[in-house]
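Hi everyone,

Forwarding the result from last night's run.
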Amino acid sequence: MSDEEHQFESKADAGASKTYPQQAGTIRKNGYLVIKGRPCKVVEVSTSKTGKHGHAKCHFVAIDIFNGKKLEDIVPSSHNCDVPHVNRTDYQLIDISEDGFVSLLTENGGTKDDLRLPTDESLLTQIEDSFAEGKDLIVSVMSAMGEEQICGLKDIGPK
């Protein structure tokens, strides 16, 4: 054999998949599902009876977790669907730049500067107003399938 040491480049996600398979019949309301390549939250599930050709079908109505668009899909209940790995992380808000990006403090003391302010108007004004008042804010960031977006806000008091 060889005595050489092999060097491997480490990646942050360790090569993990962005989705995992789950049988369509086991996906419930408020679960997550990939429809047309977009991570979605299921708002309605209806199952049809088996027909002449044998497969019960699941009809999913879901809302894209990042842009709020409504999507629908019909899948045989015995088939697998892709389910996104959805993570929620809390960060402390440090600064808001003029070009719409936020500066966040991570748990290990570093900063995260690659996130835009949310497109949701009410959340956007809530963040901007509270930050202008000088409050200490914790923002919740939802990430799935390589996308990230601010989805919530907590006030932890004045600075």
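DSSP finds one helix and eleven strands in the chain.

Cheers,
N.
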